[in-house]
Amino acid sequence: MKGRKLLMIPGPIEFEPEVLQALGAPTTSHTAPNFITSFGNCLKMMKQVWECPDGQPFIMAGTGTLAMDMAGANLIEPGDKALVISTGYFGERYAELLKRYGADVTILKSEPGHTVDFSAIEEALKTNDYKLMTFTHVDTSTAVRVDPKPIGELGRKYNVLTVLDGVCSIAGEEMRQQEWGIDVALTASQKAVGVPPGLALLVASSKAMETWKNRKTPVGNYYCDWSNWLPIMQAYEEGRPSYFGTPAVNLVAALEVSLKMILAEGMEKRVVRHEALAKEFRQKIRDMGFQMMPVNEESSANTLSAIYFPETINGSEFMAGMAKSDVIIAPGLLPELKGKYFRVGHMGSVNRSDIVSVLAAIEKTISQLKNLP
Ligand code: PMP
Q: 178, 49 in Cβ contact below 8 A?
């Protein structure tokens, strides 16, 4: 398409034409048989993508923050202790959110680019009676990836619910919710799931649903209350019409197309594609003299990269130069490192030519900066 720019930010991303076509199809009634089938298919396919066959999926109109809110609202009761493992901006957000529901929150926070030691997490769990812990699978502000498997194990060992913020990981990074013992795994449509912004997606384990059922106090958020939404999700999965709040009909139609494409590729292959492209991107970026924010390969996300500007490059001049190219990238997000780094998204429909294009645009921008008088 003439004049089209390549969107390489960490969400929203480039969407498949088939997904956009579904979004543009005439809107049907939310109780029409075809829509009920689509919604039910999405719920079933989410369980496959999340690898959580016994989980309870929820699809809501809203953003990723709403999915975070839904988990917090339904699982926290005033006075509950919560542990937030923070590897960046979105960990801090989760801590603030849980406090609104009366949680007594402890944050274990890493330096930018680092992860929190599992031994520190275990020490915290040993010495306190936490009900729930949250962690960000991939924090979009630092491109740091946390290994969910040992956190799931710790959750089981200390009987603490685990909530994975997978807004920048699910459908891009390996995530085996049920096998790894993750109680809630949540995301938003606009990232690796590959649908324009507007859907909050969440899968809850049987243990999470049980904890919610056994609450002693009402859920402090009317819209998010699973009492309102669980019957709707059950109805759609069973092919029956139902209503609590009008669903985002066109976005759900687009989600069905995208989830089908994800499953046709296969999650294993999809993860390998993300890994291979991200690895190649990081290597080429380092070869250009940049330093990545994550301190090692194991904790580097495959869905996006966060890259420090070298001393020799003025960050705002670089971003201004890139803005003139045909590739859109994102500035840094951590307030304390404002102007010190930039971010490139590489998830979802991303392919090798996208990677080559963004590398070429970066290389050209640097050479233009060097040639400045
Ligand atoms: N968590 C993470 C890791 C994210 O990347 C984002 C969005 N960038 C959010 C939560 C919040 O999602 P949203 O902007 O859709 O509310």
A: no
Length reported for the chain: 373
How far, in Å, CA of 365 to CA of 373, rounded? 15
Q: Which fold has domain 17-264?
A: Aspartate Aminotransferase; domain 2 (3.40.640)
Parse the chain into domains and list their residue ranges: 6-12+266-370, 17-264
Point out which residues pair with 328 in neighbouring strands.
7
Would the CATH topology of 6-12+266-370 be identical to that of 17-264?
no
**Ligand 1 pocket: which of 167, 199, 251, 333 to mutate (most atoms within 8 A of CB):** 167
44-103 confidence digits (pLDDT tens):
999 999 999 999 999 999 999 999 999 999 999 999 999 999 999 999 999 999 999 999
Give me the sign of the Cα torsion angle 244, 248, 249, 253: negative
Give pLDDT, residue 9: 98
Pocket test for ligand 1, best of 168, 175, 251 (most atoms within 8 A of CB): 168
Judge whether 224 and 162 are in contact, CB under 8 Å.
no
Whether cis (ω within 30° of 0) applies to the bond prior to 12 is yes
The DSSP 8-state label assigned to residue 88 in this structure reads S
Which pairs from 20-26 meet CB under 8 Å and 24+ separation?
20/196, 20/254, 21/257, 22/250, 22/253, 22/254, 22/256, 22/257, 23/195, 23/196, 23/250, 23/251, 23/253, 23/254, 24/250, 25/250, 25/253
Cα 258 vs. chain centroid, distance in angstroms? Answer: 16
Question: Is 167's C-beta closer than 6 angstroms to any atom of ligand 1?
Answer: yes
Closest by Cα among 72, 78, 89, 178 to 133? 72
Question: 264: which 2 tokens?
Answer: 């046709």
Does the CB atom of residue 90 touch ligand 1 within 6 A?
Answer: yes
Domain 6-12+266-370 fold is Aspartate Aminotransferase, domain 1 (3.90.1150)
Is the model's pLDDT at 1 over the cut of 70?
A: no
pLDDT exceeds cutoff 90 at 3? no
| Helix, strand, or coil (residue 12) | coil
Kindly tell me if the per-residue pLDDT of 4 is higher than 90: no
CA 292 to CA 84: how far, in whole Å?
25
Confidence category of residue 372, pLDDT binned at 50, 70, 90 = low
